[in-house]
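Team,

Forwarding the record for the chain on the shared tracking sheet. I've put the sequence and predicted structure together so nobody has to dig through attachments.
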Amino acid sequence: MEPLRLAICDDLPEEREKLLCLLEQAPIPTVSTQFGNSEELLKVFRLGDFDLLLMDIYMDGMTGAEAVKKIREMDEQISIAFTTTSTDHTLESYRLSVLKYLEKPVRQKDVNDLLRLVQIQKENIPRLVIQQNGKVQKIPLSELLCLEQKAHHLILSMRDGSTIQFYGKLSALLPQLEGQPFFCPHKSYCVNLAFVCGINKEYQCYQMADGKKVPISRPNRAKAKRAYEDFLFARTREMG
């Protein structure tokens, strides 16, 4: 089983050590990175780096709740649990899509239950199934920026800057993307709207997070604009 990647943020070293001891006794393997305050975490935080964030609420400087607000602007999907002595932030936690409260002193059962929940979520995230060199690959949609058809090959642009190339047709993969935040602005492209930064009106293209410009065909211009606006509206509503 692949370990869950955790970030532990607490300004008290003894509290971080207590959590590490509980994690070592848990049935699900983990790899943890420690942070002594919110500012340290935000300085290095990148989309997709962690599966779970264990965040203390009451810290000197920026509070855990304030840091989570900023993190949600960068990553809407990461699982987050507050570790705290108080549940005063229950409403705010709901708005920030915080998975659980772990009330201090944290119990082993609570840690075990949380890790099982995160593991189930990770195993059930939407994926694109492809065949490359005779092998089946399952690619998390949250890691996929864009699909591009070039002649008889497909090029998948990934969040980490890498690409995956293989023989196939874009049309054959589109059924797997139904109901997901993907849109085809052109017959040779399909983009993940989560990684669209805006629409370049001068060049009539989607401006992607990796700097790539994805063309929008003339018949799709109104649809492309509406699809992006609908996605932004839905995301804003989900975030509270």
